[in-house]
Amino acid sequence: MARSRAAYEYTEAEDKSMRLGFLLIAAGLLSLLGLGCCWLRPALQERGGGGSANCTVLAVRQLGERFSCTFSCGAACRGTARYPCLQVPVRTSRSSAPALLHEDERQLTLFFNVSWQCSYIPPCARDDQENSENVTYKQKYWKEKVGSQPFTCYFNQHLRPDDVMLKRTHDETVLLHCFLWPVVTFLVGVLIVVLTICAKSLAVRAEAIKKKKH
């Protein structure tokens, strides 16, 4: 009995392999649970209330009012700059009423920020002129390159049902990776544990067969 127990005792390398496997299993489960509760579930809820439509640009205009943005120029360096507001009203295939185009879900959540009135918010630069040039470039893009050509846009009933967005932040690829990598981590951990146990079992059997022959 003592010999059987000694035979099944894991070596230091096997013990480390088992610990690694269990660590990967725990990491996979915890990350899947954390991402599911904190990120994946809200993302699916947002997608559940939305859909796609065909949009056509009605106008491209800059408002006379300028809005503020905050730029960062270092760890302890922050400041405020201003940019013009670009509006792109569009007509959608799901409604006859015009809708305001936005970049993504992040802009649709800016209820308490006046910038939700803008279709495009440029990366905040220290120079106001640079911000204006970025907005003007985007204005030319919508006027000259897109024009009256229809394009795919998206809407979300949970955020701003009367507005549409150009792209989704939580697309299928991001959701797939959010689910895929925790599962892969879990399966790799299970595989390491199973292979270590099988290798140990085969080694014990081989040792037993060797002793019987002698």
Automatic annotation (TrEMBL):
Bilayer-crossing regions: 20-42, 179-203
Entry-linked InterPro entries: K_chnl_Ca-activ_BK_bsu
Cell compartments where the protein resides: Membrane
Record-linked Pfam families: CaKB
GO CC terms, sorted: voltage-gated potassium channel complex
The keyword Transmembrane helix appears for this protein: yes
A GO BP entry: detection of calcium ion
Membrane topology type: Multi-pass membrane protein
GO MF term set: calcium-activated potassium channel activity; potassium channel regulator activity
Superkingdom per UniProt: Eukaryota
Keywords carried by this UniProt record: Glycoprotein, Ion channel, Ion transport, Membrane, Transmembrane, Transmembrane helix, Transport
Identification of the protein by name: KCMB4 protein
Organism: Sinosuthora webbiana
This protein's encoding gene: Kcnmb4
